[in-house]
Each structure stands twice: as structure tokens, then as C-alpha cells.
Amino acid sequence: MSPEHVVEALFDPGEGRLLFRYDTGVDLYYQPETRSEEEYLSGWQETINDGGPFTLIPLRGTQAAAAERDENSGPGLGAAVLDWLEGPYSLAMYGGGGQRLAELIPLAESLTRPVGSPSLERSPFNAFLRFPERAAPPSPDTDGGASLIVETNLPDGTRVHIIQEDSMGTGGSSCCPQVNGGQLLIEQVFNPSCYAPRGAPGSTGFTVSIRVRPSYVNKGWDPGIGVVDGEMNVAPATQPAHVLEALGERFELLAGDQVVLKDGVNQLVASRTYAWPKNTCAPVIADFIPKHCDYEAQLQADKPEEAMQSLTGAIGQVRLCDIYTELLTPNLTESESWDMFRDRWKRWIAGLGSLARDGDLFKSALTWKFTDESEGRYIADIKLRGRLIAKAELHSLPHPPGSPSEATPYWGFARIDLL
User: Fold this and answer.
1) 162: three-class secondary structure by DSSP
2) With contact defined as beta carbons under 8 Å apart, do 193 and 203 qualify?
């Protein structure tokens, strides 16, 4: 299959198809192909199942559809044929000179690069993921934590799988943000400490791992359903065609120190551990204790006990705006401005010390007990490690106008005495 034996080369610009005709009568076609290897072979298997005169045979590290020469036809009419996928092209070799499969197979195996053909030996792609030295503060419109900008030379549009875990062992994963302009923006690494009770032992840092593979199949925590272009992708998220063209269908062209082989495909894997940046919880604090607290809501709960849990939970996390706008009765809210309420409660909470249960990140040490109950009215003591710190009076409220009668009951605290 050397170049000097090519007697004719034809190109069809409409189909993008290239034909090399050899002096032995062998024709070799190159056709652009966007399907993956799995999709390509699946199509041939359907043809075979429908009675097509082909079989699948091993060839050049993949499988080829093969059909033997029809002995009842003249040369070129019932020619033997091999058809296989290589990179972004499908190749078809026809034995137009009367060759049988036994003669075509070694020719195909010896194929390197006929003159003018697309290269079958593409250069390796030395890829990298470069983490920043320090984590950046979170964006103001997030739930706190940190943000990262990872540099990479992967093609724009490459989809990645991101795994996050903090020092307390909590975390999660996301699939499949895309590389843009040589960067991968991780807008938020979640810090659970921002939502822990005041004084809880906080997370000291976090680790981010990035995995890049041809597709993301549901294995363990690997995502089987990804969010792609803002839409739920019900099939496993796969790389765009231009990324597979650059890196190979199975990332066989991917190279570099961060490349590992797993599940039969190359992957780019990198990770780094960071300390939380300064002001990691600033967006959460700004949400819990904002400068202006003016949204309107009213506590709903099936039972008064649930209403009390809402109050002690909000105190533990210092969610003062939630208490002011949602948990108090409208009359109590109107009796004191937000600024006065906020400052008074901040002073009270600061004097309490830690509100966290010893050794527990997410549970507070606050307890409560009803001391008096009557129709639609409940009096409760709130204690911190057995010490009485507040008294609360909870009222059942009428449904707002227009609210359906079957709606969850409404509640409000008509008085909270801070001790």
C-alpha cells in the first residue's frame, strides 16, 4: 500500500470523501465520521442482524465489518470489503482486483499514510490541569465556601467531572462544566461550616479533584445523569465531537503526567487541597444578618413542636432575618425596627458563647420545653446546656386571606424574652 502504487486520487467536496485507487485494483475510501466507535459498530451489528453479508473481525485495534468476495460476480462487482473506524474517519477497502479478505486484511494492517490521506498517526496531546496556589473567596451570590480558576490546555468545550470533599468528610460532585478560554471556573466549593451552629468545630479546608474522560458512565458516585448546557442529560454525558477528534475516541491521544488508565480508557486526573479563604462564610452571614431585612413570610408547621424546632434552629445558626420576618407575629415585627432587633439579638447571642453541641458539627446544644399550653397558645423555656436563656410565647395564627383551608397551619412568636 505504498504511495507509488496510487494511480488515482479523487475527492468529493460535498461528502468530504477521499478515494485512493491502487494499481492492484484496491480502492481505499476515507469518509468523515462523527459517530463513536460504539455507535459505529452498533450500526454494523444491526445490518448483520438484518441479514447483511458481513461479519465483525478484529482489525487495527478495533473491529471491522468484513464481507468476502462474491465468487459468482466478476472483479469489482462482488468485491471483498473491509469497513472500519479510525479516529474521525471511516475507512473502506474494496478488493476491486479480485482480492479475497485473506489478501485485504494484511494490506489494511500494514496501512500507514497513503499520499494525501488524513494522518492515521496523529500526535499525542500533552494535556494538563493547573490549580491555583490559593483558593479565592466565594462569589457574593453563592452560599459561601471558595472559588477556583483552574488553567488547562484542553480544548474549549471539554466536559469535566468535579469532586469536592472538605476536611470533615462532607462533599459532592458535579458534572459536567466545560472548559472555556483555557480555564475551568469552579464558582463554588461548598463549606458546610457556614451553616453549622455558632461555635461548632469548623472545617479547616477542602480537596477538589477533577477527572476528564471520554464519557461519564454511572459507576459509584460518577454521574450517570449530567447537566449539559443547562438541561438534564438523560444519557451519560459525553465529550463534544471536536474534543474526541483532538484526544481520540477513547482518549488514546491523551498524554502527560496527569494521565491514568482506568476502565480501558485514558483519563486526565488532578487534585489539590486548600485551606478555606478568608471570609469564606461572608455571603452566608450577609444572608442571615443582612443590612436590610424586608422580605415577608410566615412560619408554617404541622405541629407547635415543629415551630419550636424552627426557632431554636434559627438561633443556633444566627439566622436573625429569618426570625424577624418569618417566625415573629406581624404585631411583634411592627413593634421593633430591624436595626434595633438585629443589634439586640447579636449582643445576646455573643454573650451565650458556643451554641454547638460538643464535638458535633451540625447539632446545637439548645433545648426547649413547653411550660404552659392552652388553645392556640404555648409558653416554652429555651435552655443552653441546661441554663435558661430565653422564654418564648407561640401563637397559632389564622390563615391569611386567600389561603386554602387545608394549608399547613400558620404560627408566630408573640413574645421572646432574652435572658
Assistant:
1) strand
2) yes
State residue 89's pLDDT score: 81
Strands 254-255, 125-126: pairing kind? parallel
Q: How far apart are CA 37 and CA 390, in angstroms?
A: 68
Buried b (16+ CB within 10 A) or exposed e, 286-301: ebbbeeebeeeebbbb
Cβ-based neighbour number of residue 402 at 10 Å: 5
Residue labelled with grid coordinates 448546557: 229
- Does the global pTM surpass 0.70? no
Residue 391 near residue 414 (C-beta atoms within 8 A): no
Provide the sign of the torsion angle of the four alpha carbons 209, 213, 219, 225, taken in this order: positive
Three-state secondary structure string covering 173-213: EEEEEECECCEEEEEEECCHHHHCCCCCCCCCEEEEEEEEC
Cα atoms found within 13 Å of the Cα of residue 49, Cβ hemisphere only: 6
Q: How many Å apart are CA 92 and CA 86, to the nearest integer? A: 11
Q: How far is the C-alpha of 242 from the C-alpha of 231, rounded, in Å? A: 20
Please give the C-alpha separations between residue 236 and each of 158, 175, 215, in angstroms, as whole numbers. Answer: 15, 10, 7
Report how far residue 335's alpha carbon sits from residue 45's, in angstroms, rounded to the nearest whole number: 77
Cα atoms in the 13 Å half-sphere on the side-chain side of 63: 15
For 91-132, the DSSP string reads EEEEETTS--HHHHHHHHHT----TTSPPSSPPPEE--EE--
Structure confidence by residue, pLDDT tens digits, 316-347: 999 999 999 999 988 898 999 999 999 999 99
All residues at 6 or more sequence positions from 375 whose CB lies less than 8 Å from its CB, including other chains = none
Residue with cell 477542602: 206
Inter-residue contact 120 to 142 (CB < 8 Å)? no
Between CA 419 and CA 119 the distance in angstroms is 80
The predicted pLDDT at position 73 comes to 55
Residue with the three cell numbers 499525542: 124
Query: What does the buried/exposed string (b/e) look like for 137-166 if buried means 16 or more CB atoms within 10 Å of the residue's CB?
Result: bbeeebbbbbbbebebebbeebbbbbbbbb
Do the beta carbons of residue 366 and residue 316 sit within 8 Å?
yes
State residue 233's pLDDT score: 42
d(CA 313, CA 34) in angstroms, rounded, equals 55
DSSP 385: T
